[in-house]
């Protein structure tokens, strides 16, 4: 077994024991492999180990990998900050966008998604713990945004995405409460099934609080080189 296979198996085992501890079904949490800064051959190897969903933060880097790996059946997730002038590339090349935090961004993504593609899956990013420097809408804005974005034709609004400060486990509970609370604002509540929270360092706590998708980089691929962003 190679190293990527081993680390993936370890992460899957950690997800399963977190689910067991929380009394949740083992398949109720999806693993998103965060592959930013990793080169395409490393992603291909992780794919061979069984991974299908990959998360990328930097558009240009992601587009190069999407082209290089176009023969693989990868589900591409964009988890970085969404800039208004980049929405067309996101709408055309990704299956999921997690960092939507304004109506105008969602409208552009819906307009730019081709009718021949499946609807683009969206998570609304919420600044759940009031951080100064963080992206994400305010918790008070979520109900209105859910009501509006869930009407857009070429999107499927799947849920919320949060990146709380390290060790702030209360923020996971707050995100779960908000996730349950705003479901009734959704035009298609059956689409509302995703709570994207938890990373390498805190996936167990996130799963205990109700995460359905953990975004894991370091624990799968090892430490990343430092990159200014
Ligand atoms: C980099 C990143 C992750 C993964 O972080 P790790 O600590 O390496 O697991 C998850 N989510 C987002 C939004 C990221 O930018």
Describe this structure in words.
The protein has 229 residues and is of the alpha/beta class. It has a single domain (3-221), classed as TIM Barrel. It has 9 helices and 8 strands. It has helices spanning 3-21, 40-48, 59-68, 87-93, 103-112, 142-149, 169-181, 203-209, 218-221, and strands at residues 30-34, 53-56, 75-78, 96-100, 120-125, 155-161, 194-196, 213-216. It has an 8-stranded parallel sheet with strand order 7-6-5-4-3-2-1-8. Strand 5 (120-125), helix 6 (142-149) and strand 6 form a beta-alpha-beta unit. Helix 1 (3-21) packs parallel to helix 8 and helix 4 (87-93) packs across helix 5. The protein is globular and about 50 Å long. Bound molecules: pyridoxal-5'-phosphate (PLP). Pyridoxal-5'-phosphate is lined by residues 34, 36, 57, 79, 163, 199-201, 215-219. Pyridoxal 5'-phosphate (PLP)-binding protein, which is involved in PLP homeostasis. Its cofactor is pyridoxal 5'-phosphate. Residues 28-225 form the Alanine racemase N-terminal domain. This is Pyridoxal phosphate homeostasis protein.
End-to-end separation in angstroms reads 34 Å
What is the makeup of the main sheet?
8 strands, parallel
State the helical fraction: 25-40%
Classify the beta-strand content into a percent band: 15-25%
Please report the first level of CATH classification, the CATH class.
Answer: Alpha Beta
The assigned CATH architecture is Alpha-Beta Barrel
Radius of gyration: 17 Å
Number of domains: 1
Unreliable spans are none
Order of helices and strands: HEHEHEHEHEHEHEHEH
CATH topology-level fold name: TIM Barrel
Heteromolecules bound = pyridoxal-5'-phosphate
Number of strands: 8
General shape: globular
Trace the largest sheet across and list its strands. 7-6-5-4-3-2-1-8
Count the DSSP helices: 9
InterPro entries: Ala_racemase_N (IPR001608), PLP-binding_barrel (IPR029066), PyrdxlP_homeostasis (IPR011078)
Cofactor: pyridoxal 5'-phosphate
Family: Belongs to the pyridoxal phosphate-binding protein YggS/PROSC family.
Keywords: Pyridoxal phosphate
């Amino acid at each position: 077994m190679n190293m990527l296979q081993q680390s993936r198996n370890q992460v899957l085992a950690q997800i399963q024991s977190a689910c067991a501890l929380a009394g949740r079904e083992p398949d109720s949490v999806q693993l998103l492999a965060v592959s930013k800064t990793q080169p395409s051959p490393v992603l291909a190897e992780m794919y061979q180990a069984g991974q299908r969903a990959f998360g990328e933060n930097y558009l240009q880097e992601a587009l190069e990998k999407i082209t290089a790996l176009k023969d693989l059946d990868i589900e591409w997730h964009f988890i970085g900050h969404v800039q208004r002038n980049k929405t067309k590339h996101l709408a055309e090349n990704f299956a999921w966008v997690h960092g939507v935090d304004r109506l105008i961004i969602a409208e552009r993504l819906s307009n730019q998604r081709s009718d021949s593609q499946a609807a683009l899956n969206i998570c609304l990013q919420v600044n759940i713990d009031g951080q100064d420097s963080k992206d994400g809408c305010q918790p008070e804005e979520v109900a209105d945004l859910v009501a509006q974005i869930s009407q857009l034709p070429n999107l499927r609004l799947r849920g919320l995405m949060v990146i709380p400060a390290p060790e702030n486990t209360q923020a996971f509970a707050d995100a779960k409460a908000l996730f349950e609370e705003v479901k009734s604002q959704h035009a298609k509540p059956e689409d509302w099934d995703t709570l994207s929270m938890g990373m390498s360092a805190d996936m167990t706590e996130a799963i205990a609080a109700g995460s359905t998708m953990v975004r894991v980089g370091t624990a799968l691929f090892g430490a990343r080189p430092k990159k200014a962003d």
